[in-house]
Each structure stands twice: as C-alpha cells, then as structure tokens.
From TrEMBL:
Top-level class of the enzyme under EC nomenclature: transferase
PROSITE patterns xref list: YRDC
Family, per entry: Belongs to the SUA5 family.
Catalytically driven reaction(s): L-threonine + hydrogencarbonate + ATP = L-threonylcarbamoyladenylate + diphosphate + H2O
Residues that, per the record, bind ATP: R53, N57, T113, S139, S147, R193, Y233
Any one of the GO BP annotations: tRNA processing
Localisation: Cytoplasm
Protein name (Swiss-Prot/TrEMBL): Threonylcarbamoyl-AMP synthase
Length: 341
C-alpha cells in the first residue's frame, strides 16, 4: 500500500477515505492520531492490527462539535457544558456512559463508557465535519512507542500500512490530551491521564474539586482510558530519569562503565554535558512547556539505530501543572526508573 500525504486542497479526499473505512492519520494540537470511522468495526479493528495495540485498550472518539458527541452519550454530567465551553476544542478528553449500542464494543474496549474529544486543529475538524462521522484516533505510532508529533514520525512507523496522512507540521503541545472521567453524574470529575489542561485549570472553571486517579494499570487489567498502562511511550533504547542533583554522577558513571549514553534536556543541562556523552537532544529552552513539546521527538531521535546508544538520560521536572503531564509520560517511558548512584 502506498501511503500518501493529504494537504489543504485534498481534505475532502481524506474525509471520503475515512468514511469508506480507510485509515488516515490526522494532526491535533497534542500528537498525531490514527483515524478510522468509529462506526465501522472492521475499520477500527484495522487500527488495532496496524498499531499492534491490545483490543482491551479503549479508543478516544474524535468529534467536530459538542452536538455530534451528544448523539452517543446517555447521561451528561451536570458540569459538562461548563467544561466544554472553556476547553473545547482543545486538549481535553471526557469519558461518559454511552447509549446502548451507540458505538461498536471494539471502540469502547467492551466498557459501557466511551471517551470523546474535539481537537483544536482546523484541518482535522474540517475532515470530521466533511466525513459526517466520528473518528477514533489513538496515537499514530506503533503501540507502546513514543507518540508522533510530526507527519514524518507517522510515516516512519506506519508507511505502507495506512492510506494517508494529513500533514499540518509539528504539533503544538507534544503530549496527549488530559482525560477526565465524567461517567457518573453524581461524582466529581476525575483525571485519569494528565495533559495540558491541568487539575488547577479545571477546578477554577467548575469552582469545585477534581480528583486524580494515581492507579497504574497492569497488563492484565482493562483501562478506562488510554495511557494508563504501567509502561508506555517507550523507545527500544533504555530510558532513565535523572534528578537535578544527579547529573554529574550519572554522566561520570556512564563514562566509567563505557556506556554509550544520550541526553534529553534543556539548554542549561544539555550544554553542560554535551562533550561527555555520545548524543544530545536539546529542548528549545529550559521550560516545562519546551520539554513537554520535545519529549517524544527526543525519544524518537535518540532511538535511531545509527546512534548506537545503550541508554538515554532525561531531565525531570516538578510534578505540578504541566509538569504532571510531562512526568507521567517520562515515568512510563523509563519504566519508572531513576538514575541511582
């Protein structure tokens, strides 16, 4: 199969391909998604096959409007409209109980709930609107590997396996959306996966408390949301987190052991260690925003076989605000492992 790129003038063609059951990768403000018609079980099954993703892992359903989502939801949480007004379109996914039989069970992982998102990308919203159907959209990569933040990342993983890719350059945020559980109208919202929409931002809008589910899903469990597995987003090269105070010791240890190591960090750290390591991927500045945008690209870049790395050291950030999303992805890519001297 020849995988083609779709540009602005070809969005109608991309929409028709999706409607007909083909797989088309699409851009969002977070990462690139692998799109398929959410109403066609065979098309959705192909998503799992192409990604190598377990079918117990539910998929996020992408819509072009709140009205489109309401066709499938059984009972809206009383805070829904307030949340939608403030955060849609945007990097926020909401989980609801759905009408019986409204979506194929392969979309929901056999659960009575489904996750919905309206992405903040004009090309993708136009394609969903033109297709007239909701589309599933897990990250457009090989399952378990770092998510794609450019069309080239998608092509690297999936060329020859999917019909096409809607190219819109690099994504703006760089990690997947925040997921909140609103399936029980009588309970407060709960964050199942942190993202760019933070607990603090949600609480300010709803004028109430938002819980955070800290449970890490093991391989034998069925998650309610994507991205809840214990280990995920992992390159083939081993990843290790390095605390602020441990960089000198970590680099010295690698040199003493003759371990070929790469570093992913902001300029402050990257410039200090660059002559003592085999490769460096440097964030564009030292902020958590730059780190979040660059993490997956860095993991992919340093995982190239031509570099021959044995280990990748990655900078950590405080787990607050956007740092929660960054550290959530980094911890899973590292299998929860920090450098320990």
């Amino acid at each position: 199969m020849e995988t083609k790129y779709y540009y602005e003038e070809q969005l109608t063609e991309a929409a028709q391909a999706l409607k007909n059951g083909k797989l088309v990768a699409f851009p969002t403000e977070t990462v690139y998604g692998l799109g398929a018609n959410a109403l066609l079980p065979e098309a959705v099954k192909e998503v799992f096959l192409v990604k190598g993703r377990p079918q117990d892992n539910p998929l996020i359903v992408h819509v072009s409007s709140f009205e489109q989502m309401k066709k499938y939801v059984d009972n809206l949480h009383p805070l829904t409209e307030k949340i939608v007004k403030n955060f849609w379109p945007g990097p926020l996914t909401m989980i609801f109980e759905i009408k019986k039989g409204a979506l194929p069970s392969i979309v929901t992982g056999g659960l009575s709930t489904a996750a919905f998102r309206m992405p903040d990308n004009k090309k993708t919203l136009k394609v969903i609107e033109l297709a007239g159907i909701p589309i599933v959209g897990p990250s457009a990569n090989t399952s378990g590997k770092p998510s794609p933040t450019t069309a080239e990342h998608v092509y690297h993983d999936l060329h020859g396996k999917i019909t096409g890719i809607i190219d819109d350059g690099a994504t703006r945020i760089g990690v997947e959306s925040t997921v909140i559980d609103l399936s029980d109208p009588k309970r407060a919202p709960m964050i199942l996966r942190p993202g760019a929409v933070t607990k603090e931002q949600l609480e300010a809008v709803i004028d109430g408390k938002v819980a955070i589910d800290q449970h890490l899903i093991q391989s034998t469990e069925t998650p309610k949301s994507p991205g809840m597995k214990y280990q995920h987003y992992s390159p083939d090269t081993k990843v290790m987190m390095v605390r602020e105070s441990d960089w000198d010791n970590a680099v010295k240890w690698a040199k003493d052991k003759q371990i070929r190591v790469g570093v992913i960090a902001g300029p402050r750290i990257a410039e200090a260690v660059r002559f003592d390591v085999a490769a460096v991927y440097m964030y564009f500045d030292d902020s958590v925003e730059a780190a979040t945008k660059g993490l997956f690209a860095g993991l992919r870049g340093l995982d190239e076989k031509t570099l021959g790395l044995d280990l990748i050291f990655v900078e950590v950030f405080s787990e607050e605000g956007l740092g929660n999303a960054y550290m959530n992805r980094l911890k899973k890519s590292a299998g929860q492992k920090y450098f320990e001297n």
